[in-house]
Recover the amino acids of this structure.
């Protein structure tokens, strides 16, 4: 009988079987990866000449209808003179291990060590072997060892018990894969025919997956990008080219589009499991996000229930959107956010934010090299990723936070007080040295990073020791900021600057990433293929450069499927530059008023900033009180956004004008088809506001021999213009008026960036 193969690492296997307790059972330190590596190396240097370190071990373990192919790397093999062998598993910790006993050691750690011992004994015919856990305290380097001696038969029983407990999950995944592949074989493109350009995009996506390349696709509105990327990727899964896909987005509305596309294919017989990851603050069941077990019943005992919850969910559902996740999370009393992350590892498709793949602070941590190699990343609205990546790879600290901690812990926790005081003192000295309000340096702030590292170590000791569950909210918040600062410090290279701002009594220091391309390339390394796609990757070479393309990668530019005649485009050469706005405001209001009077209907007016929009809105309303208007605000909740869009009804009797900002929630990813939108007016060229960071980006690319002004201002601004104007024509039946107000649209530097169908 042919056995179903289950390939996984020892660590993944034992963590699934032995995880237990609550989400916050013990404070889990996050800064000790580097320190842990140092601790491992220090222990391994103490080995004798005949001993071995970092030894690769593997085994095939048949169990009923399954064949487990398990591998891993054990920290050490120690060989004694009497011929006995010890498997050494080293674990670093920031906890106090002085009073630690064997009963305090983790079952997961023992399972990992015993599994390695079994594999070595099996491979070398050893009848008896010693298993050792070596704990190292990362700050003091104190060591604690626990030894067990086991026979091969005992290890065999132990390992068999582990695979038996994992087997239901393995069988479920194998069954799901089998019915998935069968359903994909019968899956046809879910529309009667391909739109213009759509078949070309489908073919390019499949080819990039087949050849393991990146694809950068500029695919205009109307082609059907979501289906054109999902369908060929799913067909590639069915043919064994890949096993998983991640659909990465920046906005909720594009996540919904991916869910809708999968639902459409499901209606045609596709049986593929997808999960949507919703941000913790949105999906949390509690009024306030607090993951301590004392405060949240869904966190308390989470790991005791999650395996059963995942089996239930993966065994009964295919499209696991927010509502589905919430239903099963309530049924099993588990945290819905953590559940969505845990179930992602067993799903075929994951729909989530860019962060979970590219941000070193929140990325999914348990993706093995083999998993990545079998995964395709589909990056929707990829133009958004550049500035998002700059945020991900930058970090900031402020003096006032450490002054606050210094005061809070004075006389209570001397170590925390001293660590926070040292950083506050460093900022005071920096302020005294700074003659200017803003100073910029290309050097990494190494002295500050050393102080922050010492603070993080003290904070971890304090947080780990808070057994009562009473944790300082300020300490926890600043700990995570400091941890992020350390992480970014390790990434610091020639694409960074450090700048300091002095604002009254406070000092703010930021490590700012000006060019995220190499870090995006690094974070995406190992995946089978990447597909970056958007309607507005213009100019394409700029986006390829900034998103980390390599020489062998593919690019594709498709024309619009819509006819030029669907657009009525006009350019009004009125200056909207910042210095001219007050002078030209009256003329602008008159233009807008004339526009809606001549052709009544539903309009969207887009502006480059809230300040400019609000000023024009006030003047407009003074002479247009009877016109129905809506105004975007900077903090609109989801219900308000939905209400804003719902007001654009096709049968409105009165003219409706929505005032909105370019680059905002209403300028991307929304579809107001037919008479729901009569016209769009774009005021200005979308230029980001002149400022320190944009000027730093400009200077960086000027030094690199590229046009810094274009990279920092023109290209990002015009991208917002293209997105805003792209709201107008969404189907073959749409007709509409597009007005571009700014004299710069007549300059070649700007006009050449406009789509062909907008040019006259």
């Amino acid at each position: 009988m042919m056995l179903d193969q289950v390939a996984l690492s020892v660590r993944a296997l034992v963590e699934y079987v032995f995880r237990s307790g609550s989400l916050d059972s013990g404070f889990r330190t996050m800064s000790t990866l580097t320190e842990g590596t140092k601790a491992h190396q220090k222990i391994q240097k103490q080995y004798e000449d005949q001993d071995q370190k970092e030894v690769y071990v593997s085994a095939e373990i048949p169990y009923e209808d399954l064949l487990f192919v398990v591998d891993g790397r054990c920290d050490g093999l120690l060989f004694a003179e009497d011929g006995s062998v010890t498997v050494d598993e080293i674990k670093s910790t920031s906890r106090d291990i002085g009073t630690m006993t064997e009963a305090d050691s983790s079952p997961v750690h023992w399972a990992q060590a015993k599994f390695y011992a079994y594999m070595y004994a099996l491979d070398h015919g050893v009848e008896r072997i010693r298993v050792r856990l070596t704990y190292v305290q990362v700050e003091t380097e104190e060591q604690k060892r626990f030894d067990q001696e086991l026979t091969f038969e005992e290890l065999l029983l132990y390992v068999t018990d582990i695979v038996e407990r994992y087997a239901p999950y393995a069988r479920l995944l194998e069954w799901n894969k089998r019915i998935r592949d069968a359903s994909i074989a019968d899956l046809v493109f879910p529309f009667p025919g391909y739109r213009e350009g759509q078949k070309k995009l489908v073919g390019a996506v499949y080819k990039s997956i087949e050849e393991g390349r990146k694809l950068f696709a500029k695919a205009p509105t109307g082609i059907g990008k979501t289906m054109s990327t999902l369908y060929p990727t799913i067909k590639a899964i069915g043919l064994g080219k890949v096993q998983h896909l991640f659909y990465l987005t920046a906005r909720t509305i594009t996540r919904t589009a991916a869910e809708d596309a999968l639902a459409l294919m499901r209606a045609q017989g596709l049986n593929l499991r997808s999960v949507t990851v919703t941000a913790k603050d949105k999906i949390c069941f509690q009024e306030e996000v607090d993951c301590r077990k004392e405060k949240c019943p869904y966190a308390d005992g989470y790991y005791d229930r999650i395996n059963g919850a995942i089996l239930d969910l993966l065994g009964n559902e295919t499209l696991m959107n927010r509502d589905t996740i919430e239903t099963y999370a309530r049924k099993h009393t588990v945290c819905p956010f953590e559940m969505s992350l845990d179930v992602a590892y067993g799903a075929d498709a994951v729909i989530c934010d860019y962060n979970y793949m590219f941000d070193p602070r929140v990325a999914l941590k348990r993706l093995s090299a083999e998993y990545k190699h079998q995964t395709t990343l589909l990056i929707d609205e990829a133009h958004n990723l550049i500035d998002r990546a700059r945020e991900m790879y930058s970090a900031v600290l402020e003096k006032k936070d450490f002054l606050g901690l210094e005061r809070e812990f004075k006389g209570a926790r001397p170590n925390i007080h001293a660590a926070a005081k040292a950083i506050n003192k460093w900022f005071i000295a920096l302020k005294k040295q700074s003659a200017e309000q803003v100073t910029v340096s290309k050097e990494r702030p190494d002295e500050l990073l050393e102080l922050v590292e010492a603070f993080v170590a003290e904070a971890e000791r304090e947080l780990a020791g808070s057994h009562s569950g009473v944790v300082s909210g300020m300490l926890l918040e600043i700990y995570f900021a400091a941890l992020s600062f350390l992480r970014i410090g390790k990434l610091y290279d020639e694409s960074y600057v450090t700048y300091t701002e002095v604002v009254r009594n406070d000092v703010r220091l930021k490590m700012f990433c000006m060019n995220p391309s190499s870090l995006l390339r690094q974070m995406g390394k190992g995946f089978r293929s990447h597909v970056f796609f958007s309607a507005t990757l213009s100019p394409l070479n700029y986006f390829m450069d900034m998103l980390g393309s390599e020489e062998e990668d593919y690019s594709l530019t498709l024309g619009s499927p819509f006819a030029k005649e669907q657009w009525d485009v006009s350019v009004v050469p009125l200056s909207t530059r910042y210095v001219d706005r007050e002078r030209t405001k009256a003329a602008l209001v008159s233009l807008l008023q004339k526009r809606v009077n001549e052709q009544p209907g539903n309009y969207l007016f887009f502006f480059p900033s809230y300040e400019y929009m609000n000023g024009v809105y006030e003047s407009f309303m003074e002479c247009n009180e009877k016109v129905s208007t809506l105004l975007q605000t900077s903090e609109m909740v989801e219900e308000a956004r939905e209400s804003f869009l719902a007001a654009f009804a096709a049968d409105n009797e009165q003219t409706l004008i929505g005032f909105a900002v370019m680059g905002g929630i209403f300028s991307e990813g929304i579809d107001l088809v037919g008479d729901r939108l009569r016209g769009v007016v774009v005021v200005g060229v979308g230029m980001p506001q002149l400022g320190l960071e944009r000027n730093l980006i400009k200077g960086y690319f000027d030094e690199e021999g590229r046009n810094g002004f274009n990279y920092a201002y023109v290209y990002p601004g015009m991208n917002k213009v293209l997105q805003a104007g792209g709201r107008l024509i969404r189907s073959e039946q749409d007709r509409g008026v597009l007005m571009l107000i700014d004299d710069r649209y007549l300059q070649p530097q700007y006009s050449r960036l406009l789509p062909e169908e907008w040019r006259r």
